[in-house]
Design goal:
The complex is a heterodimer. By secondary structure, chain A is mainly α. Chain A is built from 15 helices and two strands. Chain A has helices at residues 2-28, 34-44, 51-60, 67-79, 93-128, 133-147, 150-165, 184-221, 224-231, 236-242, 244-248, 250-265, 268-273, 279-288, 292-320; strands at residues 85-86, 91-92. Chain A has a two-stranded antiparallel ribbon with strand order 1-2. In chain A, strand 1 (85-86) and strand 2 form a beta hairpin. Chain B folds into two domains: 92-163, no CATH class; 177-386, MetI-like fold. Chain B has helices spanning 30-33, 40-50, 52-69, 71-74, 175-211, 213-228, 231-241, 248-278, 282-289, 294-302, 307-330, 342-348, 352-357, 365-386; strands at 95-98, 101-115, 120-132, 134-144, 148-156. In chain B, helix 3 crosses helix 5 (175-211), helix 3 (52-69) crosses helix 14 and helix 11 (307-330) runs antiparallel to helix 14. Classes of the chains: A mainly alpha, B alpha+beta. At the A-B interface, helix 1, helix 6, helix 7, helix 8 and helix 12 of A face helix 6, helix 7, helix 8, helix 11 and helix 13 of B.
């Protein structure tokens, strides 16, 4: 097992190198760069650009050099913890991200808790009482969460939250608390706003998860060992919880890989609509304005988390399911 | 079978059952009910039919997809026709009776006045203006399938009248017609994208899961790389590569391929992990000993084993793509007008003021929701039917 983990960690290195190349390509691929669009924007506004400052920045970040050189610079910088400079915000990437990171984590953690708290009981109930009215009702309710596009749900909920509860439109807190230090009032204001994104982002995840749990549980519940356990006199609840549920959970575990980065990035589209102060809209904006260090470094960070997540889920999977083998084919 | 008994003590009459005895058949078994001879396909059909919601959904989807073939005929207006006298007009109700007199289906004409305080167009029904609908009538001209010029419609407004069942938008275009035209793009994008992602996922995941070894390792790395980059930036870049000069149709193909190419990884991973567990089963060993090769073992023995899971996720994948298109379009990266898809319609309906003032522009949500629900229910039914021996 230890050897396996070590090997996997070694394998992460080429993976991360490939990812870094891919990320760099993604950020570089759209034609033009930040400075071009910036100068154009200023010209359109009738202002003169401070060309000297731009030249300085360009030289400092090697925009006059060919792409491979810049790539090496960028990667070497990241290894030293220097994630580059955000041209849009005029400060180092670390500081730009830092502000938004914890709010994103709060939103995402609450969302994941919400998802799990709902998905487990719903999935269990639906699987054990297949085709009952409860099953249909819960499935339908969950499916509505999948079926309504997020951005529409966000707009509609924002509107009604404003009309019914007087919650201010958009943002994670009332506007006067933006950029304020943490206080009790700010905390309360965040709580009052938090539930909208949590419900919007969470419902779809809940439905998907409950559905997969139901499907997997149904696969397991029909296996002979369940009949055996029942025949031996184990109560239905205990049977379900002890064996089939454990097997059906494999999918939850392989989800860890995708959960980790989503904790950090949050649901971008919903966040854009609700203008949340999370990292999702920041990333999209950076990509659109080709603020390449901000976009690139943040993407790299997310990618790194995913790789870790996949590793963790694979290890957990092998520990929990003895049927899964690590090395090639079993020799017979 | 009842038997009359004589008085107590009398000898029982001799009895022979006239049912033909077949030692292989137990009474009440599958064979006795006739399902044993049924082919697997028939079994699946029988099982699928029992899931009523799934059948209803399948029929609904079949109707939706069939309607794509004759969209031009079904829509009251052509895609590009607009009525500048009816901008942001609310939906008209179809009536049958006018002041107690039967007229047949008709709508009242609307008169518009400007509310100069709220800067809003106010439409009111004009009860004197009865506009009978016409059926199988000549209306806006169109090119059927882009080829044959025609002007036949299922339903048209009265001569000189207007028919906007779901209202009109900011350019005075009929929302109902646009929803019908949008279905053409949105429904096919989901299907084609899923086909692409499924083909890739099953083949790549199948080989990786069965072979293991270096191919598996390579695939795993590639999937990891693709999955570890959040999908929206990938979309954004890929969509940014699509040249602006491309025709709308090419953009549509491009978006479909993008959606498909980014979706296969999850499928491949699921196939692989299922195969990992299944390939240790005895029947695989048996098939191997009998000389079956890998493609046969995967295709004939292993894939049917987790078909149900594949179908369940396919049913989730199509609506995922339809929603993906709406999200992409919403971010301004997907389809662009003049192409009309549900994503475009919803994007035009965003904004708080729309909900408050022109709520009928939200109608395109209804087909999106219905289609996605239907795909999910049908997928559920298929999933249960895929494994009929239960």
């Amino acid at each position: 097992m230890l050897g396996y983990i070590l090997r996997r960690i070694l394998m992460m290195i080429p993976t991360l190198i490939i990812i870094s190349m891919l990320v760099f390509t993604i950020v570089e691929l759209p034609p033009g760069d930040y400075f071009e669009s910036y100068v154009q924007e200023l010209r359109a506004l009738g202002e003169t650009a401070d060309l000297q400052e731009i030249e300085q920045l360009k030289a400092r970040y090697g925009f006059d050099q060919p792409a491979p050189v810049r790539y090496v610079h960028w990667v070497l910088g990241m290894l030293h913890g220097d994630f580059g400079y955000s041209f849009e915000y005029r400060m180092p990437v670390n500081e730009v991200v830092g502000d938004r990171l914890w709010l994103t984590m709060v939103v995402s953690f609450v969302t994941i808790l919400f998802t799990w708290a709902l998905a487990f009981p719903i999935g269990l109930y639906s699987a054990t009482r297949q085709y009952s009215w409860g099953d249909y009702g819960l499935t339908f309710l969950g499916l509505m969460g999948i079926a309504v596009p997020h951005f529409m749900m966000a707009i509609i909920m924002m509107y009604f939250a404003n009309i019914w509860f007087g919650t201010s439109i958009g943002h994670l807190m009332d506007l006067q608390y933006l950029n304020q230090p943490m206080s009790w009032d700010k905390f309360r204001s965040i709580l009052a706003h938090l539930w909208i994104p949590v419900i919007i982002i969470g419902t779809a995840g809940t439905a998907g998860m409950a559905r997969r749990l139901r499907a997997n549980l149904l696969d397991e519940l029909n296996k002979p060992y369940v009949t055996t356990a029942r025949a031996k006199g184990l109560s239905p609840t205990r049977t379900t919880l002890k064996y089939p549920l454990r097997m059906a959970l494999n999918f939850f575990i392989s989800d860890i890989g995708s959960i980790l980065p989503s904790i950090i990035s949050g649901a971008e589209v919903t966040a854009i609509i609700l203008s949340l102060e999370t990292t999702g809209p920041m990333l999209i904006k950076a990509l659109q304005s080709q603020d390449m260090y901000l976009a690139g470094s943040f993407l790299m960070y997310l990618a790194f988390l995913t790789v870790i997540g996949v590793l963790v889920s694979d290890i957990a999977l092998t520990l929990l399911d003895p049927r899964i083998r690590l090395q090639g084919r079993k020799s017979r | 079978m009842t038997l009359k008994l004589g008085p107590p003590g009398a000898p029982l009459p001799h009895y022979v059952s006239d049912i033909v005895f077949d030692p292989a058949v137990e009474p009440g078994s599958q064979q006795a009910t006739g399902t044993a001879e049924a082919s697997q396909l028939r079994m699946m059909w029988l099982k699928f039919r029992r899931h009523r919601l799934a059948v209803v959904s399948a029929v609904f989807l079949a109707v939706m997809y069939a309607s794509l073939l004759i969209t031009e005929f079904l829509a009251p207006y052509a895609l590009d026709s607009r009525d500048i006298d009816a901008i942001y007009a609310p939906p008209q109700r179809v009536h049958l009776f006018d002041q107690g007199r039967f007229v047949g289906p008709f709508v009242y004409g609307q008169t518009m006045e400007l509310d100069m305080v709220r800067l809003q167009r106010i439409y009111t029904d004009d009860p004197a203006d009865v506009q009978r609908l016409r059926f199988f009538c000549r209306g806006d001209g169109y090119d059927f399938w882009g080829l044959v010029p025609a002007d036949l419609h299922l339903v048209c407004p009265a001569e000189g009248g207007r028919l906007s069942l779901l209202g009109t938008d900011r350019l005075g275009r009929d929302v109902f017609s646009r929803i019908l035209y949008g279905a053409r793009i949105s429904l096919t994008i989901g299907l084609l994208g899923t086909l692409i992602s499924f083909g890739l996922g099953i083949v790549i995941g199948g080989i990786a899961g069965y072979r293991g070894g270096w191919f598996d390792t390579g695939m795993q790395r590639m999937i990891e790389v693709l999955q570890s980059i959040p999908s929206i930036p990938l979309w954004m870049t890929l969509a940014a590569i699509i040249p602006v000069s491309w025709s709308p149709i090419l953009v549509y193909v491009g978006i479909t391929v993008i959606l498909g190419m980014l979706d296969w990884t999850g499928q491949a991973r699921a196939v692989r992990s299922k195969l990992f567990a299944l390939r240790e089963e005895d029947y695989v060993l048996a098939a191997e000993l009998m000389g079956a090769r890998a493609p046969r073992i995967i295709g004939r023995h292993l894939v049917p084993g987790f078909m149900s899971h594949l179908i369940a996720s396919a049913s989730l994948s199509v609506p995922g793509m339809i929603l993906g298109e709406t999200a992409l379009t919403f971010l301004g990266l997907g389809l662009r007008p003049p192409v009309t898809s549900w994503g475009i319609l919803l994007t035009e309906a965003r904004g708080i003021n729309i909900i408050a003032v022109y709520p009928w522009l939200l109608w395109p949500m209804l087909p999106v929701v219905l289609v996605i629900l239907a795909f999910n229910f049908m997928g559920d039914g298929l999933r249960d039917a895929a494994d009929p021996y239960r």
